[in-house]
Amino acid sequence: MKIIMLGAPGAGKGTQAKMIAEKYGIPHVSTGDIFRANIKNGTELGMEAKKYMDQGLLVPDELTVKILLDRVAQADCAKGYVLDGFPRTIPQAEVLDEALNKLGEKIDYAINVDVPDENIVRRMSGRRACLKCGATYHIEHIPPKKEGVCDTCSSELVLRDDDRPETVQNRLKVYHEQTQPLIDFYTAKGVLKTVDGTVDMKDVFAAITNILG
Ligand code: AP5
Ligand code: MG
Ligand code: ZN
Fold it and tell me: How far, in Å, CA of 107 to CA of 24, rounded?
């Protein structure tokens, strides 16, 4: 099963993708997590990506596409995957489509997690992220068992550099300009499903599993 998560920054793509990956036994592939891991490890890719991410801009397609295609070509992705944060532009979606076409494959579902902009800024300032395993918490809605410590891997939780309110505004603008058109793109392919992302995360997940079966 090949699934794409669509939605604004902070809509809960990562939160839901993790749960989907666990339930259906497929890898969770997040381009944002891959970039953040590279930044943390001080790689060249990480340093390049950080320039864009800190401003709330998209990392150029040339860099992003290659990383994603390499990742989904790995053995653990053979039975499917859930993509979180990719594609984010029409050109990225077209490249993915072409690559899948060549293999005689296709995206089965594009899940659009719908959350209005007003809710987003509030969510981001409360988010805490684990840069080691990619787990995400919220200081009010989804707190970790021990403050500042990841439940899964015991690493320190941080406020992401791009979660400052000014940067969040920019990310929302970029989302509406460059990523939202993907809703029409996947609607035209007949695979788009929209779920209400403003309800409790368990209820969002129930709506998604209803769709995925
Ligand atoms: P990325 O890491 O993908 O960030 P994003 O799309 O901005 O999305 P977020 O991770 O911020 O939000 P999310 O939807 O995963 O929400 P989450 O589950 O954490 O990308 C970061 C940057 O990398 C980009 O800006 C760009 O520069 C670059 N990049 C990445 N991919 C790229 C690409 N393909 N092309 C070019 N550049 C790329 O939830 C948010 C918060 O809300 C959490 O605190 C969570 O606990 C809480 N929450 C979740 N669900 C609920 C709920 N139902 N109710 C209440 N709270 C909830
Ligand atoms: Mg995320
Ligand atoms: Zn962790």
Answer: 15
pTM over 0.85: yes
Residue 164 buriedness (CB in 10 A; 0-12 / 13-18 / 19+): middle
CB contact at 8 A, 16 and 208: yes
Give residue-wise pLDDT tens across range 64-119.
999 999 999 999 999 999 999 999 999 999 999 999 999 999 999 999 999 999 89
DSSP element (H, E) containing 2: strand 2-6
**Binding site membership of 28 for ligand 1 (Cβ less than 6 Å):** no
Is residue 88 annotated as part of the catalytic site, yes or no? Answer: yes
Beta-carbon contacts of residue 80 (< 8 Å; ≥ 6 apart): 1, 2, 3, 24, 26, 108
Positive or negative: CA dihedral 13, 16, 19, 24: negative
Q: Is 164 an active-site residue?
A: no
Residue 102: CB atoms within 10 A of its CB come to: 8
- From ligand 3's centre to the CA of 19, what distance in Å? 15
Ligand number nearest CA of 152 is 3
Ligand nearest 12 Cα, by number? 1
pLDDT beyond 90 at 122: no
